[in-house]
UniProtKB/TrEMBL annotation:
Transmembrane segments: none
Compositionally biased region (Basic and acidic residues): 146-169
Name the record gives this protein: Two-component system response regulator
Annotated segments matching region Disordered: 146-175
Amino acid sequence: MMKLDLSNLRFLVVEDNTHMRRIIRMLLTGFGARDVVETEDGAAGLEAFQATSPDIVITDWVMPIIDGMELSRMLRNRETSTNPFVPIIMLTGHSEKKRVVEARDAGITEFLCKPISAKSLYLRIANTIVNPRPFIETRTYFGPDRRRAESSNYQGEERRQQEPTDHVVRPSMAS
């Protein structure tokens, strides 16, 4: 496993469970992170996001006030978000395929099921840093490219067609 320097990154942890927040903070500081901001719900998470400009957001799915899905959609909103390109790692105890697809379609960068391990969290963080996915903007979606691998072999009816309005957006191009 590669060793990354996380000391200059700011993390935002949005989790309603105090014990889980403590575990995530301990893991992040163990990985070398020095700047970890914590909130207990999506509303406070949105405020903290706007105030602190985190480099990576780690959010729970099920929370009071604003849940992780709604928060993710707000963070991906190009009109109102201070950084719609921020990597978002979704933590949840729900691993059904339907939920994974819903999270992917909301612009989640990485998905991690609870209970988490240090290794699984580190790998998700490392993947957002080492293998950043290009962002796609279509009429109905803005977020990381949902395709994980190129497959020129698949020719089925659900193969994504490049539409004239689809284009790849790079974070460095954001204003």
